[in-house]
Design a protein that fits this description.
The chain is α+β, with helices and mostly antiparallel strands and about 325 residues long. Helix content is about 55%, strand content about 15%. The chain is built from twelve helices and seven strands. Strands 1, 2, 3, 4, 5, 6 and 7 form a seven-stranded antiparallel beta sheet that branches. A hairpin with a 4-residue loop joins strand 4 and strand 5. The chain is elongated.
Length: about 325
Amino acid sequence: MADGGGRAATLKDQGNEQFKSGSYLKAAALYTQAIKLDLDNAALYSNRAAAFLHLVKLNKALADAETTIKLKPQWEKGYFRKGCVLEAMEQYEEAVSAFQIALQYNPQNTEVSRKIMRLTQLAREQKRAVDVENMRSNIDVGKNLGSLKTELAAKYGDAELAQNISSFVINVIESAVKVWHDTGKVDARVNFLLGDQKTDTEKYAPVVNIEKAFESPDTHGSCIPYLRQYTVESYSKAACMVAPKGVISYPQVWKGTGSRKWKLDQSDGFFVQFESPILRKIWFVPSTTEKGRTLCRSPEPLDITIHEIFPRIFKETEAA
């Protein structure tokens, strides 16, 4: 055992020299040889953990840090190694916990104190980023538009048609939200729910770009009869217009009606206007920036008589 311990110490010293010179792979190999001769030496595992950390072999480094703690639970170095590995793994809350234990055993360690302060802030930012991402993925458009299907069913007297139209509107909004999250913008366009077998799909597409409609009163006015004709000739059952707030220079649907009419302050976002022969709706999807990430909020219903993007494009019919 004595000879083994002496040989292990020699290998450890050699490993330390390789470590200092930046030869981390050679250092790790020497520490491994030493460990085989002295299995309960916490310092060897601690040193190998440091070498593995530099080699970005994080799982191996964490395992060695845990072994260091197990062999010598009141030694700050094991917790320090664990904290450093968890920091590299971007597990900031867990890293802070490890460093706090290290500080308990050596309250004078200023390096550990600085790490705790910095990683505590990073942990807060990380948590906020996760919260934002969860909010991005948890916008339940279907829940927010839950009454639409019921209202459509009551007006059409046809539950299946109501389901199809409701699903169409929800899919349009969900797709727009995803694009907005990915790019920070959406194109102004009209989505059509085409009429099954009747539509000539080679001539009529389910999406029409209307970006130029908002360039002037003239382009806006000329777009209206075109869309009306499109709904008839394509046998569309419904349409859903999407238009970013920023592109609408005309009409200024949220201005000229009194400040009390627009209740969503200066939020960026986009409008969604639903059109059908017997029902019209409009929503605004507000957008903010949280931690550098674009975040859409739930659709806000608006009064279509005040905020319509276009006037009616379907010929009005009475409810069933």
